[in-house]
Amino acid sequence: MILETFQLKGKNALVTGSSRGLGAAIAIALAQAGANVGCHGRSADGKATSETVRQLGKESFYFAGDMADAEVYPALIGKTVEEFGSIDILVNNAGTIRRAPAAEYPQTYWDEIISVNLTSVFRLSQLAGQDMLKRGTKGKILNIASLLSFQGGITVPAYAAAKGGVAQLTKALANEWASKGINVNAIAPGYMATDNTTALRQDPQRSRQILERIPAGRWGEPADVAGAAVFLCSPASDYIHGHILAVDGGWLGR
Questions:
Q1: What is the rounded distance in angstroms from the CA atom of residue 252 to the CA atom of residue 80?
Q2: Given the DSSP bridges, would you call strands 182-189 and 244-247 parallel, antiparallel or unpaired?
């Protein structure tokens, strides 16, 4: 009985930014739990995750689009509903990062990061939420926050602002939709070995400083978030609303 509450059979999911990294690991884990999974990436050559989902015996599609483009949001939700008939699970994972000292931070960086990392999360959640509310069915929205939802970071002012916003948006939507059967929660990954942390991992001093603070003693891997994502998208988390779950190797507790 307990194991059944973690199953996603018959559910239709969309995972943004799922052509690689954390998003790919989450998309594949949802499919392994039984969900049909729509995949998204920025470029047209990111179909590998979608193909893996199909190999697992689940329905899938791939949609390419830049999350800085506002026209992508309704098109992506519309594609999910068209392909699957409904959207039951939305995972807002797509994101990017730009580094520069705050005093020199370009406006173009700021606009891009806020659009991709925060505006897209609100608009996709809003559109998916409208569909769930109209159908009167339960739904799950999972946002990918960050340790910088809690901390300020260095040379990433827009990223920190956006991820702080994601945490607050998660709570705000949960407050409105929890009574409607829609769970809105977030995962805050720690320092993960993904494209976003390439610069940090290649800097010997910063990499050493980071590893010295992580109680687990290692960088996280995309697979480390998979179980938490399945949990927060499954019936096992039905009474969890507005929570930001840190998957950080113990970083915040240090």
A1: 36
A2: parallel
Q: Which amino acid is at 117?
A: N
Q: Which residues contact 154 (CB under 8 A, 6 or more apart)?
A: none
* Tokens encoding 248: 């950080």
Please state, in angstroms and rounded to a whole number, the distance separating the CA atoms of residues 108 and 121: 19
Compute φ and ψ for 187, nearest 5 degrees. -110, 135
Q: Residue holding tokens 């509903």?
A: 81
Tell me if 115 sits within 8 A of 108, measured CB to CB.
no
SS3 33: coil
Told to judge if 191 belongs to the known catalytic residues of this protein, a careful annotator would answer no
pLDDT in tens, 24-40: 999 999 999 999 999 99
Mean of all residue pLDDT scores within the chain: 96
Phi, psi of 76 (to 5 degrees): -70, -45
pLDDT category at 197 given cuts 50, 70, 90 is confident
CA 177/CA 216 separation, integer angstroms: 35
Please pick, among 62, 73, 109, 159, the residue that the annotation labels catalytic: 159
pLDDT of residue 2: 63
Of 2-11, 52-61, 104-113, 149-158, the one with minimum mean pLDDT is 2-11
Q: What are the beta bridge partners of residue 182? A: 139
User: Does the pLDDT at position 250 exceed 80?
Assistant: yes
Residues 190 and 220: their CA atoms lie apart, in Å, by 7
- Partners of 94 in the beta sheet? none
* Most trustworthy range by pLDDT among 2-11, 149-158, 201-210: 149-158
178, 167 contact by CB (below 8 A) = no
Domains within the chain, CATH numbers bracketed: 3-248 (3.40.50.720)
